[in-house]
Write the structure tokens for this entry.
Amino acid sequence: MKQLIGVDLGGTSLRAARMDTGGHILQHHSVATAATAGPEAVAAQIVALVEQVMGDISRSDIQGVGIGSPGPLDPFEGVVFRAPNLKGWVDVPLRAMLEKGIGLPVVLGNDGNAAALGEWHMGSGKGCRDFIYIGLGTGIGGGIITNGQLLLGRKGAGGEVGHIQIEGSGPVCACGQVGCWEAFASGINFARWATETLQSQPESALYAQAIAGKVTPADIFAAAVQGDAPALDCVRREGEYIGRGLVSLLHLFSPERIALGGGVMAGAALLEPHVRRVIETQAMEPFRDVEIVYAHHGEHAGVIGAAALLLS
Amino acid sequence: MKQLIGVDLGGTSLRAARMDTGGHILQHHSVATAATAGPEAVAAQIVALVEQVMGDISRSDIQGVGIGSPGPLDPFEGVVFRAPNLKGWVDVPLRAMLEKGIGLPVVLGNDGNAAALGEWHMGSGKGCRDFIYIGLGTGIGGGIITNGQLLLGRKGAGGEVGHIQIEGSGPVCACGQVGCWEAFASGINFARWATETLQSQPESALYAQAIAGKVTPADIFAAAVQGDAPALDCVRREGEYIGRGLVSLLHLFSPERIALGGGVMAGAALLEPHVRRVIETQAMEPFRDVEIVYAHHGEHAGVIGAAALLLS
């Protein structure tokens, strides 16, 4: 089997790795993204990184290069519409720009879909016909495999799992809507509402920190492990928010398995009973026995996912 | 092209029709369902109905028989788990029972999916690769076509569009959950909350009827056409509920087109501006230009959809 190269295009770092089709990393390298230098400069960085991770391997032993990128993009045309945190990126035909420089097939996909494909082909979703990956980080991203295919939809824009509405009102989401799942359950939003809540709970060990406006999910999990009741209550509420979004996804997709990943899953053991309770009480009976698992790919999720775009 | 036979299995009526692959009905017939006589009796009714609509046509000119049924069922195995309003229906292997009697291939599917396939193959969804049909009747049913395939999921249980959560609290849905889209936007729920609302609005022409507990969607639409302000406000709210569910579906599936059908769509012209406003203000930009259309199949939607199960 040929090897794969994955490139994770972020606003801060640009990471590349060469791996086998099982996701075992053979060589990897990263650089700071030239975020203000424009698309041509970043494309040149990507070409150089790919050259580096290729090492002594011949081009004929490489299947291609997958590029995972945040932000709105067209995976069919290989065009990045806008890239958050990258200056001057508007309608960039990245695939065409890179194929010339790299001399290998290039596939472009959004990072949530890429991570889902990585878990499906090489991780927690192996062997499933219907699988969902949810990444709970700063935002909520992910991807959906239905009937053995990545759900893309028109313009490849589907699978925006973070932007299903779970409430008719509430804080404004990063997308501009109110009521999105992400606006309640993502890491940054968990931190926001937990900080607000703990500001009126002097009995919590996190009270002073909350007043100073600095409680993170990690702080909440640490306090909860110590038995801090207000922190435990925040964990319960976060688990319930996560579970409620999953219930809607279950009813729509009836997956065999859902994998959860991202920074918030540092508290998986604490969150899990609450997530499961919501599924057991709010999902309809035929959906309750879904497997809930944790994503396999941690620090290399970005590059493994990007490489898996070549397998979709 | 061979002809198709569709059978719509309802708790009250059993309808069958023979049609061409364009959904043009050549012969149809219906009888009252023997709802209390058990599965064998209903299967015998179906066999007799199929014989009737077959007329003088030879079996070799018929592709098969599609059966659309409400309630939980396994389309892969052809088993009805439970049929609402049909006595003694538990785990009925309906496909096997019918194939013996009919002597033609039989396909079983849920009525929401069937209606979606009917619209996709022979109606408002023709030519789409990504299409959603939503039927707003007593409940909310429907079906999802993604990447040119009906979304089924594990056990064929996916596509339960009415049971995405749009609120964390509210009235209990027919499924037992709270917060389902159906519990706000379906016809029976529209009638429920509108009746409650109008009970405190003596300025409405519907006030006395609301006090008597009998306002229907048709009443509300009729009053709204006359300019009744409280009725217009109910229409606005119903349109917003419909739109909010659609926003979640847009973000997940990115369909080219959504078709709306069912009894509530009798008020389509009144509801449409509100539905569109929600999409234009709450959906993310790449999703806003989705086509919203109305289902083509009215009174024959059940049998046409059932026949379309043969084409999926």
Q: What stands out?
A: The two ends of chain B are 16 Å apart (CA to CA).
